Amino acid sequence: MYRVLILIIMLNLYNPVFASIKESVISKMKLTNNLSFSFVQRIGEKKENGKCLIEYPKKIYCEYSNSNKKIVVSNGQSLVIKNRHSKNSYVYPLNKTPLALLLNKNYLISQLKILEPRIIDNTYINFTINKNDNEINIFFDKNTFDLMGWQTEDIYQNLTITFISSVKINQKIDSRVFILPEID
User: Fold this and answer.
1) Domain map of the chain by residue range?
2) Does domain 23-178 have CATH number 2.50.20.10?
3) Exposed/middle/buried for 132, CB within 10 Å: 0-12, 13-18, 19+?
4) Cβ(35)–Cβ(147) under 8 Å?
5) Rounded CA gap, 94 and 11, in Å?
6) pLDDT exceeds 80 at position 135
7) How far lies 29's CA from each of 110, 128, 168, in Å?
8) Residue 167 pLDDT greater than 50, yes or no
9) Is residue 5 predicted with pLDDT exceeding 80?
10) What is the DSSP-derived secondary structure letter of residue 65?
């Protein structure tokens, strides 16, 4: 009997903490129009890094620091992955990739409102979104509520983990970077 009472009290104390965390993450997202950051991305055993810009809704520009000088660009409709060294380019409809969900701030906020957060290693806040056969794990910093990264499967069903750092919010961005590059 006492154990049940203690459990009920603990659950009532626990839920407001998560509600506060959830509201803080949502508030930070609502105020965010764009992000610039450095990233480290792991796809299987392969590790790459670089810098990105995200402008809501649905625009991204990333430059990889690898020898291929790969860039990833979305104008909100299409996603282009271009290897500037070999001149190879790949074009995908953005809505066929998990990035379509990650780059849609309004969709993210609507999902954060209904999902329950998990605290990981007392450092990260995690939300898991399941949509269209995609599972996306999104991570936020527990103290600043900044986006810290995500985990998805890429279009080839490889586990892709992206860690971001040096996050800057609402910086002046030249929107021309989101113009899709010419396909060779």
Assistant:
1) 23-178
2) yes
3) exposed
4) yes
5) 41
6) yes
7) 11, 16, 13
8) yes
9) no
10) -
For 63-86, b where at least 16 C-beta lie within 10 A, e where not — what string?
bbeeeeebbbbbbbeebbbbbeee
DSSP for residue 56: T
How many Å apart are CA 182 and CA 161, to the nearest integer?
28
Q: Tell me if 55 sits within 8 A of 71, measured CB to CB.
A: no
> How many CB atoms are located within 10 Å of the residue 148 CB?
21
Rounded-to-integer distance, Cα 97 and Cα 31, Å: 25
pLDDT in tens, 82-129: 987 777 888 999 998 888 999 999 999 999 999 999 999 999 999 999
- Is there a contact between 138 and 148 (Cβ–Cβ < 8 Å)? no
Q: Give the separation between CA 61 and CA 54, rounded to whole angstroms.
A: 7
Reported as a pLDDT band with limits 50, 70 and 90, residue 184 is low
What SS3 state is found at 143?
coil
Per DSSP (E only), the strands in 2-102 are 34-43, 46-55, 59-64, 70-75, 78-83, 89-93
CA 90 to chain centre: 21
Res 134: pLDDT: 79
Over residues 153-158, mean pLDDT: 76
| Residue whose entry in the numeric block shows the structure tokens 């299409």 | 78
